[in-house]
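Researcher: Structure prediction, please.
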Amino acid sequence: MGLFKLAAAAVVSTVAATAAVADTGLMTKYDDIKWIDIEGTPLSLSILWGNRDTGPYAMYLRLPGGYEGVEHAHTYEYEGITIQGEWQHSFAGETKVLPVGSRVTQPGNAFHSDACVSEEDCILFIFQDGKGDAIFHDH
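Model: Predicted structure follows.
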């Protein structure tokens, strides 16, 4: 958990410098992060700045240890960084396990899948210029 707390502090420091609260400052301890459950999934998120319904925005995304997601896409490209755990990302026939500090640039409208292959929860830092959504295959 120590590495996550360090990374979270660094990200929050960056957020404070660029977000609307830059004039007043913002400091958030790890234990004070407000997590919101994503309905119908075991995932949760915490918005750092912006508006996920319209974009741009940044968030933490928490995947429980052992989680395996279904293939999906997003309308807009996103950038993701592993903050805690081991994130597995599969895209265009390639699968990689991404330890802390690893980065993904996921193109918009491109199907991919995600998993948390560690026992501990995976926490990802996600940034999107556009709205946050999920598109699933029609079955």
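Model: Confidence is low (pLDDT under 50) at residues 5-17.
Researcher: Thanks, that helps.
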